[in-house]
Design goal:
75% of the residues lie in helices and 0% in strands. Helix 1 runs parallel beside helix 5 and helix 3 packs parallel to helix 8. The chain starts with a helix and ends with a helix.
Length: 225
């Protein structure tokens, strides 16, 4: 009950910042539309040389990219509460650490789900085929969403609101670069690929791609990571 009460309060805080909410949900869709316009302007035959821009892979990558903004949003929410001494006042209540953590994490889950649904619905208009694989992809994307939200909780707990924006933006850039979202890591070699797969971002992108493509035998490893 304590966690649910705290969740309701955080939901109200999220609704009070509708611009950020619209940005988190809408920007991945805008990015997907941008890539589709770019692909059409170059020519569909270019997809053979750039398989990462094929709609199945692209929708998976942009879904993970959208999750990275949850890190920023969650971190900012927590850091603002710390700056305003709201957390200090709540420490006088019977709330436990788990109440605080789940109170911040749970309200972000519907946002992550909305991001994925809107991204996939948009991708359907550009050739993504509706199948049970999409439902599987939504399920296996859940750990990735929790990972990015949890990173936001960690950053919000450790840094001030002025520092959270820069550090969360760094995570967004690391997710793009080391996740291979817009270039194919699987056909690259060398130290960069080794370093990229030390981090969880590339595994998250692979997990979403394997689910959408129906490559079930390849799902377990990135899911565990």
């Amino acid at each position: 009950m304590r966690t649910l009460a705290f969740c309701k309060r955080n939901i109200k805080e999220i609704i009070r910042d509708p611009l950020s909410l619209v940005f988190m949900i809408g920007f991945p869709v805008v990015l997907l539309l941008f890539f589709q316009v770019m692909i059409l302007s170059i020519g569909l035959e270019s997809l053979e040389a750039t398989p990462q821009f094929e709609i199945n892979s692209l929708s998976a990558s942009i879904s993970i990219f959208g999750f990275s903004f949850l890190t920023l949003f969650t971190g900012m929410l927590i850091s603002k509460d710390r700056t305003s001494s709201f957390i200090v006042r709540l420490r006088t209540t019977p709330m436990t650490n788990n109440d605080f953590i789940f109170g911040y994490v749970l309200p972000m889950i519907p946002i992550a789900l909305t991001q994925v649904l809107i991204c996939f619905l948009t991708a359907l208009f550009f050739g993504l085929k509706f199948s049970l694989n999409l439902l599987l992809a939504i399920v296996v994307l859940f750990p990735s969403a929790v990972m990015f939200i949890s990173l936001g909780v960690l950053i919000g707990c450790l840094f001030s609101d002025k520092a959270v924006g820069g550090i969360a933006s760094l995570i967004v850039n690391l997710a793009v670069i080391l996740g291979g979202m817009f270039f194919p890591l699987r056909i690259m070699k060398g130290a960069f690929v080794t370093i990229a797969y030390i981090f969880p971002f590339a595994h998250a992108v692979d997990l979403a791609s394997f689910a959408i493509l129906g490559q079930y035998s390849k799902i377990l490893k990135p899911l565990i990571i």
